[in-house]
TrEMBL record:
Positions of the ABC transporter domain: 4-245
Ligase recorded as keyword: no
Gene Ontology terms, MF aspect: ATP binding; ATP hydrolysis activity
Protein's name in the database: FeS assembly ATPase SufC
Length: 245
């Protein structure tokens, strides 16, 4: 049984159809890469999977863990274990990084999270990501550099332990060290959580130390090609032209 199954998904953003019938499957404990030219709907697909209200599903279905989640609200999907790391993480003044993650964890589990245990795990995980401890008590993403925002996303992923993590260009704009750190975080997630990943990226640097199971190529609101890891290299050599409709 697949973890994620998307069937003929059509999605509108502000009454304009952006996804024109996407089909995509992600198995358990698998690493998938989603590539495609700018503006083809990769981020839109990510938002539609997580249930962002601005992305209206007009037809088709999304199944997660065997359950039809097409109509399920965003917070319910998060509870089921779907996580999206944003291409452009939002700044949230007045909510610390620590409080934000603890709240998300409590929302997800429906239980109170004991502060002592939480802080311990948070500090350990931040250390692994080479994040200074002081960031935990800073307002979420406010004044964070691009790299720090992306690290904060990876930190959330490691703390929330989702079944499916969608990473939307988490590696874009990062320096070599930050890419390595993010990559380490992703590996840690694979080892610890045995979750699945859908990695939206234009770069191969983040994939270097990961085993990629499946590569999907999107063009103009559709998945136009599925392949193995070698498809990533093929695209890097020849571009997207051969896949264009
Ligand atoms: P990609 O991530 O592949 O670059 P996007 O999913 O961001 O592509 O965008 C696909 C198309 O949908 C683009 O034409 C974009 O302008 C449009 N779009 C995406 N999100 C919105 C939005 N919130 N409001 C208006 N148009 C949007
Ligand atoms: Mg995008
Ligand atoms: Mg085209």
């Amino acid at each position: 049984k697949n973890l994620l199954e998307i069937k003929d998904l059509h999605v509108n953003v502000e009454d304009k159809e952006i996804l024109h019938g996407v089909n995509l499957e992600v198995g358990k404990d698998e690493v998938h890469v989603l590539m495609g030219p700018n503006g083809t709907g990769k981020s839109t697909l990510g938002y539609a999977i997580t249930g962002h209200p601005k992305y209206a599903i007009t037809s088709g279905q999304i199944f997660f863990d065997g359950e039809d989640i097409t109509e399920m609200p965003v917070n319910e999907r998060a509870k089921k274990g779907i996580f999206l790391s944003f291409q452009n993480p939002l700044e949230v003044p007045g909510v610390t990084l620590s409080a934000f993650i603890r709240n998300a964890l409590e929302q997800k589990t429906g239980k109170r999270v004991r502060l002592w245990d939480f802080k311990k795990k948070l500090t350990e995980t931040m250390k692994l990501l080479s994040m200074d401890e002081s960031y935990a008590e800073r307002d979420l993403n406010v004044g964070f550099s691009g790299g720090e925002k992306k690290k904060a996303e990876i930190l959330q992923m490691l703390m929330l332990e989702p079944k499916l993590a969608i990473l939307d260009e988490t590696d874009s704009g990062l320096d070599v060290d930050a890419v390595r750190t993010v990559s380490k975080g992703i590996q840690l997630y694979k080892e610890k959580c045995k979750g699945s990943l859908l990695i939206i990226t234009h770069s191969t640097r983040i994939l270097e130390s990961l085993h990629v199971d499946v590569t999907h190529v999107m063009d103009e609101g559709k998945v136009v090609k599925n392949g193995d890891a070698s498809l990533v290299d093929e695209i890097n050599e020849n571009g997207f032209e051969e896949f264009e409709q």
